[in-house]
């Protein structure tokens, strides 16, 4: 106990001089911790990380299995033989490339549009006070809170009247006005970010004769890169995974995105399963064939593009979240 | 071009210019649809050749939801009780994880990457699929036959809800990626001087957490609570949401569906109101 404290004090003294300059070093490091504390820390981390990685492992393991492996009690995680036939099947069943293209269009374009529009609007909310400001801010919060189901029917009628069904407009046009999927949240993220920036930059630009728009686009917008990255990734992933709006506004199979296609594939395999079990009612082995492996392979393939993107951006993403200060207030 | 205007008018005009797109969008994609759905909820809608025809029927749809419809009320109660249960769980778990990640240790970036993974996969179809397939039940519980072990040491009435929590634990955990992120950002913004001052005054880590860390991240708890509530009210696989979509687009009972949507909205609003009330002190302090 005693020696531990001494060691901690020494470590602390050594560390304090070096680390005072960096504000981002967590407090824990500065006050040395006991070994037991670190063991506990890593144990907790590994335990939790396992829970988080579990669904991924599950997806990968199941999608590599054959139907015989699924009903084999001796097979838990490792398939008896390495076989990629499920992926081949899913590739065709999902109609991958055309649906991938649709997914890209209905998520990449809204995400990029939301960056621009939500930054513009967020800047207005962050830097200007005008009559009706509080009311508008209240509306912004309100918009965030309204469940989309409440207004989905009028929106559906509205978009039908505009002949927007089976086009990309329902995803892009609301985004253009800072709405669309969680638009209000993204406006708030930019609002928070711009509030945190010092005002001197703009004052300098204004004194040099730049107008409000010019100041925004050439000075403030480029500074918002951390917030942009956060909004871009969230928007892209949420649009990519969304089936609620696409299932209403996109009814032609050709225009389906990957997630809708996955739902179709899942439905088909359930159907095959029912037919299959109906055909073998005479079979008393109790073994029910499932196509879960194929659906898991399909699931993995639909989220794979996002996983790859995340792999490359996660470093910047996490740092950006810290810097963007999305939790500022 | 605005030479003749006073500084203040010009400031106002620029403010309106920046927020105008949002206001237009709000009217077109929020206010008008909301008003229309309110109107629908008090009407009986029929599809005629001339389009949708609405007859005013007063509170009939709302009465039907709570008296005639046997499916709606249990589903609503289920969603609300699930929410009351899960949101605190998510908050505690997310804060705990954020505290773990906030330390400086080897492999920090890798662990962070892992903990935000659910943000990528935990929304939508894939997660629903995984849950149906039983991936949410961690093998640990099955292997050690937790149910019988627990029932041998405590009353059955306690075991069942406890097992329920454990089973939904991994699901709540996968739902907390964004919340961990927000807590972590909040923890990072706490000034190191506060910790130093507390340490100099001889505070234990336990005291430091409750007297420094916790008060400093109270606003983040509010943000996270709101986010979790909104998220669980709107996420895919929510039974109420599926039910409303069923009524609207399969049974084509538009007026009734609109009424259900409004009831749902009001319930979520009341819950959010309660949360804001609970946090009123922290809100007032910040003005």
From TrEMBL, chain A:
Segments traversing the membrane: 39-60, 104-126, 133-159, 171-194, 215-240, 295-313
Top-level taxon = Bacteria
Mind listing the UniProt keywords for this protein, alphabetically?
Cell membrane, Membrane, Transmembrane, Transmembrane helix, Transport
Q: How does it sit in the membrane?
A: Multi-pass membrane protein
Q: SUPFAM superfamilies per the record?
A: MetI-like (SSF161098)
| Protein's UniProt keywords contain Membrane | yes
Q: Quote the Gene3D superfamilies the UniProt record gives.
A: MetI-like (1.10.3720.10)
Q: In terms of one coarse class, where is the protein primarily found?
A: membrane
Protein name listed in UniProt: Carbohydrate ABC transporter permease
Question: Could you tell me which species this protein originates from?
Answer: Paenibacillus terricola
TrEMBL record, chain B:
Keywords from the named record: Cell membrane, Membrane, Transmembrane, Transmembrane helix, Transport
Record's superkingdom? Bacteria
Give the UniProt subcellular location, in the record's own words.
Cell membrane
Query: Which InterPro entries has this protein been placed in?
Result: MetI-like (IPR000515), MetI-like_sf (IPR035906), UgpAE/MalFG_permease (IPR050809)
Protein's membrane topology: Multi-pass membrane protein
Q: Tell me where the signal peptide lies.
A: none
Q: Name one Pfam family in it.
A: BPD_transp_1
- Bilayer-crossing regions: 12-35, 83-102, 109-128, 176-196, 208-234, 254-279
The residue ranges of the ABC transmembrane type-1 domain are 76-275
Tell me its family.
Belongs to the binding-protein-dependent transport system permease family.
Which PANTHER family would you find in this protein's record? BINDING-PROTEIN-DEPENDENT TRANSPORT SYSTEMS INNER MEMBRANE COMPONENT, BLL4140 PROTEIN
**Protein name as it appears in the record:** Sugar ABC transporter permease
Lineage here is:
Bacteria, Bacillati, Bacillota, Bacilli, Bacillales
């Amino acid at each position: 106990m005693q020696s531990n404290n001494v060691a901690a004090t020494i470590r602390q003294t050594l560390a304090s001089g070096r680390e005072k300059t960096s504000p981002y070093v967590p407090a824990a490091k500065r006050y040395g911790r006991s070994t037991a504390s670190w063991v506990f820390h890593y144990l907790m981390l590994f335990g939790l990380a396992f829970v988080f990685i579990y669904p991924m492992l599950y997806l990968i393991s199941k999608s590599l299995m054959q139907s015989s492996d699924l009903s084999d009690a001796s097979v838990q995680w490792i398939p008896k033989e390495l076989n990629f036939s499920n992926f081949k099947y899913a590739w065709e069943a999902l109609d991958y490339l055309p649906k991938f293209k649709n997914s890209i269009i209905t998520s990449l374009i809204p995400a990029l549009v939301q960056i621009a529009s939500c930054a513009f609007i967020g800047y207005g909310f962050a830097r200007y006070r005008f009559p009706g400001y509080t009311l508008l801010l209240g509306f912004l919060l309100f918009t965030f809170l309204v469940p989309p189901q409440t207004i989905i029917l009028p929106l559906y009628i509205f978009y039908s009247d505009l002949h927007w069904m089976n086009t990309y407009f329902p995803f892009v046009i609301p985004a253009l006005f800072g709405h669309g999927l969680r638009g209000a949240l993204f406006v708030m993220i930019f609002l928070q970010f711009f509030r945190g920036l010092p005002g001197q930059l703009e004052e300098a630009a204004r004194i040099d004769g730049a107008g409000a728009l010019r100041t925004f686009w050439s000075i403030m917008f480029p500074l918002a890169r951390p917030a942009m990255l956060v909004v871009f990734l969230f928007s892209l992933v949420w649009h990519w995974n969304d089936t609620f709006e696409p299932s209403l506004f996109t009814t032609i199979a050709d225009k389906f995105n990957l997630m809708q296609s996955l739902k179709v594939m899942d439905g088909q395999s359930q159907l095959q399963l029912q037919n299959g079990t109906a055909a073998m009612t005479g079979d008393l082995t109790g073994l029910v064939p499932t196509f879960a492996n194929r659906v898991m392979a399909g699931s993995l393939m639909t989220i794979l593009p996002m996983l790859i993107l995340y792999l490359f951006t996660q470093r910047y993403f996490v740092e950006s979240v810290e810097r963007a200060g999305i939790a500022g207030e | 071009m605005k030479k003749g205007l006073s500084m203040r008018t010009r400031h106002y005009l620029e403010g309106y210019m920046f927020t105008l797109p949002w206001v237009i969008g709000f009217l077109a994609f929020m206010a008008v649809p909301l008003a229309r759905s309110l109107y629908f909820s008090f009407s009986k809608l029929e599809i005629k050749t001339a389009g949708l025809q609405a007859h005013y029927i007063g509170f009939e749809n709302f009465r039907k939801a709570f008296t005639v419809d046997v499916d709606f009320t249990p589903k609503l109660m289920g969603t609300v009780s699930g929410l009351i249960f899960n949101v605190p769980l998510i908050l505690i778990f997310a804060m705990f994880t954020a505290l773990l990640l906030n330390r400086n240790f080897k492999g920090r970036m890798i662990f962070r990457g892992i903990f935000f993974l659910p943000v990528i996969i935990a929304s939508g179809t894939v997660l629903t699929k995984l849950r149906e397939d039983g991936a949410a039940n961690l093998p640990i519980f099955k292997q050690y036959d937790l149910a019988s072990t627990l029932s041998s040491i405590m009353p059955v009435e306690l075991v069942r809800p406890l097992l329920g929590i454990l089973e939904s634990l991994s699901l709540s955990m996968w739902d907390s990626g964004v919340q961990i992120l927000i807590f972590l950002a909040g923890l990072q913004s706490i000034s190191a001087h506060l910790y130093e001052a507390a340490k100099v005054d001889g505070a234990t880590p336990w005291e430091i957490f409750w007297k420094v860390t916790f008060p400093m991240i109270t606003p983040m708890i509010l943000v996270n609570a709101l986010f979790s509530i909104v998220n669980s009210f709107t996420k895919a696989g929510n039974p109420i949401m599926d039910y409303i979509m069923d009524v609207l687009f399969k049974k084509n009972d538009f007026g009734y569906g609109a009424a259900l949507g409004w009831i749902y909205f009001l319930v979520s609003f009341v819950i959010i109101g309660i949360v804001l009330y609970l946090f009123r002190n922290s809100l007032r302090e910040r003005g």
